[in-house]
């Protein structure tokens, strides 16, 4: 039996540094590009640049901790597997449910955001948004059905295109930057900067996604830290440069429009601008979905392996395996959320709250697990301590939207209560009791082997 804090032997998957870095970049450099630069400029003015720098600093210990955990414990269960080692089965089940059934609410949000941009740019009737959103959802599911290796190469292409278009839009808008746009620097005071920080926290979320596919890396101990470092530098540079250009080129009007990237592109090339932003919207939506679906599928299979979901979904949990059954379950969950979104009149806020509250809960419990798992006094352990403190602050900021996460936690706890009640229930026939006792021993032995 492996000791709780002993590292798992390195996995031998097929993802290299290039593919892994692309998946990490897409997980973080997501739909925030479409709206956050303008929103942050609207609430903080030029000082929104300070907010971006602050969040980059806050992201370093969080991303670093997840990289250390993923490299040391490559497991498709991701954060849930770390929590299982450190805090037990019930806490791990909560973490898995938060990601599988809570974070998953963000998938249709991404698709609808992409569809909104396409509709606005192409002049299509808004009644076509659901159709376009479904069209955005289909390709990532198909790519992941052929395995994370295929999804990784698809992600590499999508990420390369995304970065190319972002650089192009910034280059087009850069000549329009005016020095006077940066004064006054604090039009809304430091309170506005705080609001901008809270917005950009969500832009830099996504570092946990790589933990679920860590077992698919050829050399996780080497590839994951390198991929994380490159992704952190690239995403930080993209958001920082884009924020500077947004403030400098659009000035006081930066926060007025819902499509700031479209406005930036039009400054340099009205004809090319609309097409460029349309490409950005499609690439961002497809890229984010592609990265997250790989994580959802692997997590679902891992949860089934640990009997937190029906065992039928466990196929494909092993490194190199394709968890098509868990991917199908993910499709059902996404379609349910999408159906609820249609019934709500395409209201995004309730589903964003489900997503973000689940993310905050995952980060908080994941950092607590990291503090307990990582060797005390090491660089990884200190990053985990710092990240745990920061996550506690995030929990306080998100206190008003934690109800969905609390509901999933209750569901996970209820499973534990039901299982304990079944184990304690006396059987009428002695033979059944003996058989149940043997099954309990087999289950305990199985759990010991897995640990």
Automatic annotation (TrEMBL):
Membrane topology of the entry: Multi-pass membrane protein
Keyword Membrane recorded: yes
Transmembrane intervals: 21-43, 49-74, 95-122, 128-146, 153-177, 189-207, 228-252, 272-305, 326-346, 352-374, 381-399
Signal peptide residue numbers: none
UniProt-annotated stretches for the region Disordered: 422-451
Localisation: Cell membrane
InterPro entries: AA/rel_permease1, APC_superfamily
Keywords: Cell membrane, Membrane, Transmembrane, Transmembrane helix
Pfam families: AA_permease_2
Keyword Transmembrane helix: yes
Highest taxon in the source lineage: Bacteria
Protein name (record): Amino acid permease
Organism name: Microbacterium deminutum
